[in-house]
Specification:
Number of domains: 2
CATH class of the largest domain: Mainly Beta
Radius of gyration: 18 Å
Largest sheet: 7 strands, antiparallel
Bound molecules: iron/sulfur cluster
Shape: globular
Helix content: under 10%
CATH topology of the largest domain: Jelly Rolls
Strand content: over 45%
Length: 216
Amino acid sequence: MSVYEPSRGETDYRIEFGWVPDANGVGWVFRSRDADDYYAVRLRLIKPGTKLVLAAEHFSVLKGEEGVHSRKVIPLVNNSGLVQVRMDAIGTSFTLSLQDAPVDTWTDARLDAGALGFYQENGQRPAVQALHFTFTGKTMADVANKYAENVPGKFYVDDQCIDCDLCRETAPANFKRNDDGGHSYVYKQPETPEEEGLCKEAMEGCPVEAIGNDGE
Ligand code: SF4
């Protein structure tokens, strides 16, 4: 395992890189306290081609004990050969995105801080390109940074959105995805007490506090 030392005390971050799918796969660790305590994600190539199939799995290692692997098979249309990979670790929420679309979201509260890095199987270095780390702090939604597509009214989504899908699942009558930008926005303000309650629930559940209710 090789970790990025300056990230050791960090809690919330985004890791982004390009990966040309190969038989070796690519694995990375996050919230790593030491070699016995960390979370990990691995992408493997199941079927190559322009309609490729990947397997994404995530698991934890705590006190040296490897936990159950949660695995998801992901079909992907890919004409360029390069797959854009992104993972956001914010609070207890983790979102894996491929080609700017979320493909897996999960929560885990056991490790709250620790380093980011890569791990290798069979001694193979992962072939990643344009690696980028972003360290983020959770700040309240700011009406000055709201997306232009939000309809006027008190609820809005600002530019901290990590496209985790939670608000769209919680309040589907009010939140939609901007597919080009890869983020949520409010496309209808709540019109009933039920919708208002669901919008508040989405706002409280948003892992990066990208939803505000102080709009005009
Ligand atoms: S606004 Fe928040 S809850 Fe909705 S998709 Fe963005 S990050 Fe997720």
